[in-house]
Amino acid sequence: MIHIKKIGVVGAGIMGSGIAQVASLGGFQVVMHDLDSTIVEKGFDSIKKSLSIMMKKGKIDPGQDRKILSNIAGTSHIEEVVEGVDLIIEAIPENKELKTALFHELDIKSPQHTILATNTSSISISAIAAATKRPSKCVGMHFANPVPVMPGVELIRGIDTDDDTVEVAKYVLKRMGKEFYVSLDFPGFLGNRLLMLFINEAFNILWQGIGNREDIDRNCRLAFRHPMGPLELADFIGLDTVLSISDYLFNEISEKYRPSPLLKQLVTAGHLGRKTGRGVYEYETTNTK
Ligand code: NAD
């Protein structure tokens, strides 16, 4: 098994910033990348907020926050990610063309031994891996949101993923303090195939005027014991991400995943949930963690 020292995280949004945080917590040297330095700084702001909550709850020791932050470098230059990197975890938007283009570039620029992982919520790992000349070293590591809080990660093996790559992914997840379960490489994997039906139906119920947003969510909290209602959860995930996953499952699996017109309308209007300050609900800040 190759020795993992440096981890690159590409995409510093909701998921990428969380992945960088837990990678640093696991003792790895981390480089977090996004398209420009302002977005990278926003990623660091999310990490700082999350660390301060963890500190208040006694989940990390005093001073550990500074150490976690100092292990993470930020950059908008992909060359700084790929240099001497052992594992890259991609967390850019849920779009097959974007992800395959990035994997193609990472394959050309990274050292030969580097493992390329994707945090995709639904897209075939084998299809993303096919954009590279190292499909045996590509794997799915599907973290849950918020990454520093949620313990479970789906590990997805593409058709060509080799045993060593899977073992390295398991080792890294253990060091990050995560538990994992293995899914076949089928659209939506284990979790989102279920979750997207549920969330999408909540949008349809709202769109049809059967109940208001608060009551749809309250019903799930009070009657099903869900910690969050489906509409709150959709805002938390990001409505653009929910729409991309639903569209992918609609095209790849069946009609039952057809995205709700209301979901589409909100995304078209730029109301993407917490990250933009408005989605199904309105938010005072764009705090995601
Ligand atoms: P996000 O919109 O918060 O962040 C995506 C980031 O990627 C943005 O900051 C964007 O600037 C950056 N980006 C776009 N193209 C890039 C490129 N070519 N190179 C570098 N950076 C680029 O999205 P997110 O919610 O963090 O989702 C990222 C991935 O994680 C998606 O595949 C999504 O399906 C998956 N995911 C999301 C959740 C969730 O709850 N949000 C949960 C599990 C998995």
Q: Overview of this structure, please?
A:
This protein has two domains: 6-184, 3-Layer(aba) Sandwich (Rossmann fold), CATH 3.40.50.720; 193-276, Orthogonal Bundle (N-(1-d-carboxylethyl)-l-norvaline Dehydrogenase, domain 2). It has twelve helices and eight strands. It has helices spanning 14-25, 37-56, 64-70, 78-82, 96-109, 125-129, 163-175, 192-207, 213-223, 230-237, 239-252, 261-268, and strands spanning 6-10, 29-33, 72-75, 87-90, 115-118, 138-143, 152-157, 179-183. The mean pLDDT is 96. Residues 10-16, 33-35, 39, 91-94, 98, 102, 119-121, 142-143, 145, 237-238, 241, 275 line the site of nicotinamide-adenine-dinucleotide. Nicotinamide-adenine-dinucleotide is lined by residues 10-16, 33-35, 39, 91-94, 98, 102, 119-121, 142-143, 145, 237-238, 241, 275.
Question: Which key phrases capture this entry?
Answer:
289 residues, alpha/beta, Rossmann fold, N-(1-d-carboxylethyl)-l-norvaline Dehydrogenase, domain 2, 2 domains, eight-stranded mixed β-sheet, 12 helices, 13% strand, binds nicotinamide-adenine-dinucleotide
Quick overview of this protein structure:
This protein is an alpha/beta fold.
Ligands in the model, by name, code or SMILES, are:
nicotinamide-adenine-dinucleotide
Tell me the major beta sheet: 8 strands, mixed
CATH superfamily of the largest domain: NAD(P)-binding Rossmann-like Domain
Q: Low-confidence parts, pLDDT < 50 over ≥5 residues? A: none
The outline comes out as globular
What would you call the structural class?
alpha/beta
What is the helix fraction of residues, given as a range?
40-55%
Beta strand count: 8
CATH class membership of the largest domain? Alpha Beta
User: Any guess at the CATH architecture of the largest domain?
Assistant: 3-Layer(aba) Sandwich
The number of domains: 2
Roughly how many Å apart are the termini?
34 Å
Strand order of the largest sheet: 3-2-1-4-5-6-7-8
Structure annotation, total helices: 12
The proportion of residues in beta strands is 5-15%
Under CATH, the topology of the largest domain is which? Rossmann fold
Gyration radius, rounded: 19 Å
